[in-house]
Design brief:
Elements (H helix, E strand, L loop, with lengths): L13 E4 L4 E4 L4 E6 L7 E3 L8 E6 L5 E6 L6 E6 L3 E8 L7 E11 L3 E8 L2 H4 L2 E8 L2 E8 L3 E8 L5 E2 L5 E7 L4 E9 L10 H15 L9 H13 L30 E2 H14 L3 H17 L6 E2 L10 E3 L9 E3 L9 H16 L5 H17 L16 H16 L6 H16 L26 H5 L7 H13 L1 E2 L2 E2 L9 H4 L2 E2 H13 L3 H12 L11 E3 L4 E3 L5 H14 L11
Antiparallel strand pairs: 1-2, 2-3, 3-4, 3-5, 5-10, 6-7, 7-8, 8-9, 9-16, 10-15, 11-12, 12-13, 13-16, 14-15, 17-18, 19-20, 21-22, 23-24, 24-25
Length: 592
Amino acid sequence: MSAPWLPRVLREYALIADGERGGLVGPDGAIVWMCAPGWDGRAVFSALLGGRGGYAITPADPWHVWGGHYKPGSLIWRSRWVGAGVTECREALAMPADPHCAVILRRIEAHEGPARVRLTLDVGAGFGRGRIRDLARTGGIWSGRSTASGAGTVHFRWSGAGRARPDADGRLDLAVTVPAGQFRDLVLEISDRPFDGPPADPAAAWQGTEEAWAHAVPGCDDLVASRDASHAYAVLRGLTSGSGGMVAAATTSLPERPDGVRNYDYRYAWIRDQCYAGLAMAAHGSRDQLVGTVRFIAERVLADGPDLCPAYTVTGNRIPVERSVRLRGYPGSTVRAGNRVNGQFQLDALGEVLQLLAAAARLDLLGADDWRAAEIAADAIEQRWRKPDAGVWELHEDRWTQSRLACVAGLRAIAAQAGPAGARLAARWSGLADAMLAEQEASVHPSGRWQRAPGDERVDASLLLPVVRGAVPPDDPRSLATIEAVGRELADDGFVYRFRHDNRPLHEAEGAFLLCGFWMALTAHVRGDEVAAAHWFERNRAACGPAGLYTEEFDVHQHQLRGNLPQAFVHAAMLECAVRLSGSVRLAGSDT
């Protein structure tokens, strides 16, 4: 049986997450996406992609208006429906998280009249291929399992819906009325192991979750866009496992373009993305999550050295080979699991690693193993920088200018932190940076700007980043010419595109890249143009839905989100902008 929940535009979904997995909640109260036991596991709720499986609390009265908001500094979401009365549903994944067991907390609250809702639970292991088996009710608590060939078994236990009834396929349904002014708790546990303890207590689980979030997100009252900055921290924390690994997004195969080709699996930890997030946290002086980030990155460098992969699972393992999944897919896409990036080499990631380690060193967070990782990363750059790589946009191999300038910035940053004891290494790293920069003259366009590669004359928005990171000064003629060219050729109405694919109008080739829009803001800030920085920042931070979540791309013409949700590096860039712009300007109308 296919899922009864129709797809919605991406801006209408909210995220609940606990660091080990995440679920998307639609405006109809349906959790239509969640993998178990962890991020890269097979989905147990896959209705988002046209499969079986979901968990809904839906108003019984179809005549209603939806809304919602997060508890500040958390991913505790509150759906709100206004109809004959006002019904709210408070929901979260319980924290602290168990890597083997997801605990979904949902509390139905009746405001201004009774709350009449319908509950539906359908657990489908293996992207919906598995059916519910061994369904039983004991003491008002439902339990069962779902098994799919090659995908293993997930066990579930559902408290608070003892009167639910199964249909012919095992899906549980129940109509509930909560009296005005009262609430009803529901707790769903999903595990890759049989349960051997009592069910989770909702009161204790809610208290533990609220306390965990209170300690997870630092104060942001000193920042411009303080609520958005706090929310960005919460999103990044929700996407970060106890291992320190942060997934690029919670989902797979949400299309960047409705052509069935550009849709990827981002449920893995990208080295570059994680460095971007760490740099944002370091800029704010936030140490707690940064420690885990540095640990995860350093461990990967120590293990793989010059063979550093672009991305890993959050447990540090290799990403599986990309394969097709037999689901209908979100409209405009096909479904994939795994990622082809596992076969790439991305030189810029090594430069980003050094930038991250240098930022952590400024906060006195590096240990002996971390410094050893810095030496290995610098040695890997020295070995491989003249060879082609896949680059920041993960395209075909070339001698990408941005990759080499990222390494220049990283080498200089870590050399500046080496101190007297590391003077010899610092001199070596600085000398390598100078040699690399000198050889980039082949990547200077006849107009004086940086071009993408020696044989590719196009302008590329990623070449703003060397200005931000200090590879070249902001008043260097090549920097000024590049900034001008990006603004002239790749910007539209306050948004920025990555590069020009062909002769088509920019918006016909792909959406505006929000990461590039925030880089434009940071570039203006570095140059001291705070008015322009505020313009770019405010324009791009508004490109989200009601839940404040960003995707990778923004369709400027249709004002739609495009790609996997939420995209971690966009939230990281928004946070870094808020931090850096706060040092010199208070934005008119910002929520400080």
